[in-house]
Task: structure prediction
Amino acid sequence: MENQGNHGNAKQVARGVYQIEVPTPFSVGPVNIYLVEGVQLTLIDAGPLTEEAWTALNGGLELIGYRMEDIRQVVLTHHHVDHCGLLERVRKLSGARTYAHPLAVPYVELHESFLSFHDQFFLNLYRESGVPDEKLIIIQKFHKLMMTFSERSRIDGLLKHEQPVPHLPEWQVLYTPGHSQSHLSLYRAEDRLMIAGDHIIKHISSNAFIEPPRDQSRSRPLTLVQYRTALQMCADMDIDLVLSGHGDPVTNHRELIMQRLQKNWERTDTLRRLLADGEKTAYELTALLFPTLYEKELPLTLSETLGHIDLLMILHQLEARERGGILTYSL
Ligand SMILES: [Zn+2]
Ligand SMILES: [Zn+2]
Result:
């Protein structure tokens, strides 16, 4: 079944699983929301908080033969606004229970204390990375983006690695961090089907986005190391079909994962070449690695650079030196 109406785009992608494509205002393009039939009708993710996304989500549900009021529960793959922005609207209209990984909760509940911790973390990270003062405005922009494309909501139930999805007993929760600290994937062993959110995407390599640690007493998670580990966990699994948060399904997950892992080593080689003529900050390396992209997409590109610096630091192939609160790296 494939239906495209004026106000929706929905198709069945597996037994009892429907994909609804919803537009986003972000460069990643549309996001895929999944509707899963089971003991309780379940929505996986909710799309960004825009009228266009809301219309497309409702239109998609209608094409499949449901209404928003029929949704009994929502499971978030992770807390990024393109996936959770509409959660509160869905919850209010349907009365659905909401589920996510514990680390998604502060991003969904958006308490003031968390937001200031979040902003302070990025301010420290960007300063330490050598981002010039006049560019630190990006942190306010990032904050505004979170508040514009999502709104305060709540999580009713927490999900952890290897537990069954509530009211969907065939489905198992997998904790797959790296792209996001709260990232979950869902797996149905019977037909070796995975709903992978942004963990595995066919047409783009997923960013191991640097996010704050769970509390101030900890140092930042090494997100690229986490991401590679979670990818390797999936490579060891038997999966016939991966349904992603963006783009087309993946049928060759092992091959794709090997390509992604290999790409990381190519990038660490590039970083080492860039450091051959002397020490540099993470910001300087980002400008060299992504000359056309880094100004527009600083949070993403800086995360990419820092992740690869982390890999080299773990292998003792880089030295870091701190001067006046700024870190520089050398071979
Ligand atoms: Zn994401
Ligand atoms: Zn996404």
